[in-house]
Amino acid sequence: MGETEVSVSPGFRISKNLTKNFFNRRRMVMAADYGRPKKRPVGKMIVYGMFSAVFYALLLSNQGVITAYFTRGALYAALPIATAFAFSFIHGGFTNYFWSVLGIEAKKTSIRPRPEVERTYDRERPQPQPRVRARV
User: Do 96 and 104 touch, CB atoms closer than 8 A?
Assistant: First the structure.
């Protein structure tokens, strides 16, 4: 009907448009799978790693001074908490970029709450029977 046919093997013919669409789709799927790889955050990993190393070096080389300030009490009690947050932020950033450079990423799925299923009970429930309580 206007479409030209291509002979594939003896006894089989495929229309030219069908083969063209098949191979174009196949190329599109392959191109989608094998596109440019994502850029790895190597620079950020190195920067956060250097900051993390400097923080640990400062902490370990000045233990006496840090202990003296952290044990004073009053408002100085906030210093250990602030230090823990700073270490957590810097070291957490380094760890995140480290795993990203290695190619290990968290699974990104949206969490949708499941609708609560209404349960129906088909069994017959026994009705409470009245009791006669007589005192003697």
Answer: no
CA separation for the pair 43, 94 (Å, rounded) = 11
Retrieve residue 84's tokens. 């823990």
Supply 29's token pair: 């799927």
Structure-token pair, residue 12: 């089989």
Of 41, 60, 64, the closest CA to residue 52 belongs to: 60
Structure tokens at 9: 């093997």
Residue-level pLDDT, tens digit, the chain, 136 residues: 555 555 555 655 655 555 555 555 555 555 555 556 778 999 999 999 999 999 999 999 999 999 999 999 899 999 999 999 999 999 999 999 999 999 888 877 777 777 777 767 677 777 888 888 777 6
